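Support request, please re-run this one:
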Amino acid sequence: MARLRRLQNEGIARDIFDLLHLCTEYLVIGAGPAGLTVARLLSLKGRSVTVVDPELTGPKRLELLAPVTLDVIAALDLAYLLEDPAVARPCLGIRRRWGSAEPEYDDFLRHPRRTGYVVDRARFDKRLHAAAAAVGVEFVNARLAGVESDGRGVRLASYGRPPEKFAFTGTIVDATGRAAAVARRKGARVTICDKLNAELLEETSGENGTSEPAWLDVQQLDASSWSYQIHGLGGQAQTWRIHRSGTRSTPGALRRVDASARMLSKMAGDGWIAVGDAASAFDPIASQGLFNALSSALVASGALISPDGLSIDTARFYSEAVTAAFVRSEALRSTVFR
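Re-run finished. Output below.
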């Protein structure tokens, strides 16, 4: 008890103190869209859930949600977020230009849903956090420092303190993004299918401007790179260059992120399951990334609350489903970015 009191006095969050008393069934590591969504869904089903993340803030990035993603958004009861002009801006479609050829148009008006959306990820994630907190999800401002080899504990670090071990025998949800910090400690291997880098070349703040529907413009730059120009709220705009590993980086790029297409050898196992980019990851600017986060969270939560729970069969079926979705997406991408 003295050690627990010391932790409180030193400023470690109350939630970490509570974790020592095993007051949670599910420990979600990561507060991106996948982690926040699976936590919210589990809590809505009466499960106790704790999310561990050092920042609880989304990336400063604009991302596209194409019309095909909107059925999942509706199933998650998140359509209200896209209707909020402070979070999302309608998108008319995608214009692609390869070399000197005439532009190709993917006009969203031809889709049953008729529109897509450009999402401000920082604001979107903040609203997801509020939605999760509103249904009882607890939050810990900490980072994962390790998973005990016997599967009966984790080590968490916070506020620059040395890692502390916490006994935990429930299910860990790996929502750590491309790091796949839990899954890799559990023996899953990462396979990179197409090694890509993304560089932010230009950015407009959007303090003044329109929020009328806009297009996502994609243009081939050379044989191994292309650019996106995406328009967000109130005139926000970002231009990204995507290029394959081994090609020259752009001097003066404002930001660089890993955009590789990659997946795990398995997405779930004994006492753990991976969601979002931790399970499979895509180019972060196009629509697959955010859609993958939300859809995998929906499927994972269903697996976790199934009558058999995360059994061997359930873990295998989930891994096969995520792998199949990844393979289909990559096959489609190869026909577009030819």
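The longest strand covers residues 88-97. Confidence is low (pLDDT under 50) at residues 1-15, 17-22.
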